[in-house]
Amino acid sequence: MTQHNDQQAQRKAAMAVLAHAEAGEIAARLRILALPGHQDLREGESGLVMLRGRVGGDGAPFNLGEATVSRAAVRLASGEVGFGYTLGRDREKARLIALCDALAQSRDFGAAVERDVIAPLRQELLARRKQTAAQTAATKVDFYTMVRGEG
Amino acid sequence: MYVAVKGGERAIENAHRLLANARRGDQSVPEVTLDQISEQLGLAVDRVMSEGSLYDRELAALAIKQARGDLIEAIFLVRAFRATLPRFGASEPVDTGAMRVQRRVSSTFKDIPGGQILGPTFDYTHRLLDPTLAEGFVPEEPATGEASTAATPRVTDILGRDGLIESSPQAEEGASVGDLTREPLNFPADRDLRLQNLARGDEGFLLAMGYSTQRGYGRNHPFAGEIRFGEVEVEFFTEDVGFAVPLGAIELTECQMVNQFKGSATEAPCFTRGYGLAFGQSERKTMSMALVDRALRARELGEEVGAPAQDEEFVMSHSDNVQATGFVEHLKLPHYVDFQSELGLLRKLRQEFAEANTAEPMKEAAE
């Protein structure tokens, strides 16, 4: 059960990185691997997901508005089934995420896809976030209150 | 009502060809690209996504281009597009407390944990037109600072710890979330439906309604407890995968209004809240939304209801600019048959009036 949970956490962490990458970036990384045979279990399709917020940020949920979402499923010749979901209408990106998810579950390819695809994309994502955070930090206010009668 | 008329096909076709040319404008001027709209008119894109109720920057940019910059027309186009796609389901509620904050200000506390962060803002600009922007402007590189790893808790959470502010209403076990795109609106409407309505409501309408509460039509003494803008992660639980799948991140603006007190013989007085949330960087929208959300809670909080912003039927029935524009603009469609019958009635009334007025003097003369 813990092994199952570990794998689930790892798949989720990989998806969280892949969803932020462009299809081209994922495809370029995947070219490094000698991919096993695979087929589309469910062809990519685009649809909507209703995005929910919470009243007051932490209360009961409400429907904020929809987002476009694409999804796909891929099966490796060895049987592993991967799923790809992403914001936006890029069905090819959903297929590539599904392929990565299937590879991540495979005994033979799990380590390689993490090393050659997910890890470098994660580094790039974290670098982008770090840059935004640094630029944001420069706009932080250092308040000082003037006492009446002074200055 | 209007009646369909035939015969204008060629005129319509030619009018649309003319529109396509007018949209393109002078063809010696380069065509605007969707990337340019998305990158350089980003706040227009944010508004179209919010009120079009569809998070997709590229589609919103296309809609703005197609609508020649008419944002309400663009919102209409986006709403029509969303009707063509199947819905996979609903996301897990986003956690705005975990937002990667790019702007976060509070007008109630100077020293908030995580700090006051201005981010990219028009605040404190002098509102003078800048001629250097006219062409070839290259901005300075943004300054950078040491990013803190400290959490940025919501200001309302901090106030809530001491019980100084009411807590957010929690959902009852197994309660469904109201969706006005699926079921017709009934009054009174619960807070979830009201917030959904306001989130897609017209910014100008909400601004005017919020403003009216400040001017005394349903006064509720607001403070901008917190406004934050940044990215939040979205997750979607799906049976096939078996866990909540990360979909990527969206940009949101959240506004927490802190308003004057409620309390009773059994409950200590505390601040009340109004809430605003919208796609993208939509500060004016979320502030207005939070003011109106609070005003619409008048009945629930036992306040006198009398101002327009406190009347949920009035607010919710008139906030949607696609509905409003549909009804206002349909007046320009052919109403020939309707008008003919009104014209007939008017002629009859005028004839009766004339007969009555010519008969009178003759009667007098005869006497």
From TrEMBL, chain B:
Keywords: Lyase. One of its GO terms (molecular function) is lyase activity. InterPro entries: PhnI (IPR008773). GO terms for biological process: organic phosphonate metabolic process. This is Carbon-phosphorus lyase complex subunit PhnI.
